[in-house]
Every structure is written in C-alpha cells, then in structure tokens.
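Q: Structure tokens for this one, please.
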Amino acid sequence: MGSMKRRTWLGLAMASAVAPMSMARAQTGGLVIFAAASLKNALDEIATDWSKATSKPMPKISYAASSVLAKQLEQAAPADLFISADLDWMDYVEKKDLIKKDTRVNLLGNKIVLIAPKDSKATVDVKQGFDLAKALAGGKLAMGNVDSVPAGKYGKAALEKLGAWDGVKDKVAQADNVRAALLLVARGEAALGIVYSTDAAAEPNVKIVGTFPEGSHPPIIYPAAVIKDTKAADAAPFLDYLKSAKARPSFEKQGFAVLVKSASAT
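A: Here is the predicted structure, written as tokens:
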C-alpha cells in the first residue's frame, strides 16, 4: 500500500463503506467490477453463473453509489469494468479518459417508485400537484443524495416536475446510495422513500405505494464500459456476457429492462 495514490483511494473507499479492492486481482486473478448499488441482486447472480460456466474466478464486485465509484476510478482505483446507474457519471469517467469508449453500452433501464414500510397504510397517487408532505404525516422521506446519487437525482427531478419538492425538501433523509435509502424505509426509520422499482422488489420489508410517471424525470439508463487501463483479458468477455441472452433472465427477474439486443454468449 506504499504509494500516496493508493492510500488516497483506500481512504475514499473506507469513507464510503466500499470494501477496498486494491489487492483483489493480485489475490484471485479475477475481475474487479465497480457497479451501482441497485444492481447487487442481479449482478451477484450473473457473476456466479458466469464463473460456473467459464470456470473463471468469481468476480470481485464493489457496490456503491455511481458517484462514489466514479470518483474512486478518478483516483486510480483498480477496476476492470464500471456499470453506472446514470449517464452522467459514465460521461464523467469518459471525459477523464478512464474507459474504453468503444465498449460503452446502454445496458439496462429502470423505474423509480415511492415505497413505504410493508405494514404502512399509506397510498399515494403520484401525479402533478400531489401532496407528498401530507402523505409523510410528519415522517421522513428517504432518498439517495439528491446532488450525486443517481436515484436521488432522478427522484428530486420528478418531485420538482410534479410540484412536490418544495413541500418535502426539509423532510428528506439523504443516504449515501439507493440501497441505504431502501434500508431506512425497511427499518421504519423513514415513512416513505424513493428508490428504483428493482430495489423495492429485492426488499420484503417494503411495499410500493406509488410509481412516478416516466415523463417526470430523465430516462433511467445504466451504461457499462470496460476500464481503459485494465489488464484483465476477461473484462470484455464478461461485458459481452452481461449483454447476452444468458444474463437477461437475471436482470428481468429483478425488474430491469434490458436495453441491448441479446447476443449469444460464448
């Protein structure tokens, strides 16, 4: 861990509660993947299937907010593949010349929803002019950080478009990533939350009480790309696997829309 650059990255990783991956490739010979937190259930399953099918080491996957991962890549964190939950953070690393531009692909789509604890009696008609503050009934609204976390940015944009943001902006509990926002609602620490529909499907202790109209926020797109400095021969083949018909069921089971036309996996 001798270099200042490596120490800087480790500090970032510890601050964001992302397990350090600096030695992962040296220890296992496997891929190191940086992925948006909302991908965990689907990507864990896909990585396991890929490892079994190819007899390759199980990829090491670091899950966090796309903003955190992009900043870690900028600090020379060692990774082979990056999957962001929005276009902005992939644009950010591309402008920093950190990805192989010809590998970049819009992989998945998603939706944002309003959730409550599973035993909540709340029902909310999410539409123009709806009174979200009334639905909160004095409680907190859990969201990813509205300035950096993609789910938080999408959520704020939707609330602004629907005229509900000003009524709740002082009641927002901002989390470091979307799964942390999900947990606040699952534990009953927030009355409502805005997460991806895929997150709601992955957590039995919450229920969806409203869905945001697609036109209320920018399209939710997950781009993926191979990191420019990777030395891993399996990085591009694994990305091909993510685009293949073999990975599609795992994504769709979690509620993602697969945006790429499936090719046959090798």
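A few notes: The longest strand covers residues 112-117. The chain has twelve helices and eleven strands.
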